[in-house]
Structure formats: structure tokens, C-alpha cells
Amino acid sequence: MSCGQGRMCGGVSNVPTEADEKIQTICDGVKAAAEEKAGKKYEIFKAKSYTSQVVAGTNYFIKVHVGEEDHVHLRVWAKLPHQGSGTELSAIQQGKSHCDPIEHF
């Protein structure tokens, strides 16, 4: 059930947005944590698109190109100022392609 254009009830964006400099900066900040969780190093780590969910802060669900045809999906929590600000990698999904939709996970 949609509550408004591009947002689902509960504050989840259901329409992917092209990644911008802000989203790339978030990805750059969690790259080491993503590599640790994935057990591999990424030479390419380029944010492509994202959706978001407003919670106590914001969850970003980000599609990241990691080389050749490979992509990963990241869930990154951006904390509110009273929580210490900053970002934290919550989860990573590997084995994604450019065509895989970004879903809440």
C-alpha cells in the first residue's frame, strides 16, 4: 500500500534514485567494513542507485558496482546527531547484478 509518490508506509522509499556524491561518500565510509563482511577486497566500489527508509536516522539500501558485472547491495544506517552521527554498515548482500532490484533486507 503506497502512502505517497515514491514512499511506502513506514517511510520506505520504493523507487530507486540514482546515487549522487553524498551516497558515494557514505559508501566510501563503509567500504572497509563491507570488504571485511564479504571476505574480499574491492578495487571498484561505485554507488549506482539507492532507496531509503526513515527510522531513528536513515537506512540506505545501496546498489554498488564492484567490478565486471558484479554488484553488492548494502544496508547502511545513518545515525541522528544525538546518536553520535556517522554511518554504520548493517548488512551486505553479495552476488547481485545490475538488474537486481534493491529490496529491504
From TrEMBL:
Pfam families given in the database record: Cystatin (PF00031)
Signal peptide: none
Subcellular localization(s) per the UniProt record: Cytoplasm
UniProt KW keywords: Cytoplasm, Immunity, Protease inhibitor, Thiol protease inhibitor
Entry GO terms, CC: cytosol
Chain ranges of the Cystatin domain: 7-105
PANTHER family, alphabetized: CYSTATIN 14A, TANDEM DUPLICATE 1-RELATED, CYSTATIN FAMILY MEMBER
Family: Belongs to the cystatin family.
Protein name (database record): Cystatin-B
Biological source species: Champsocephalus esox
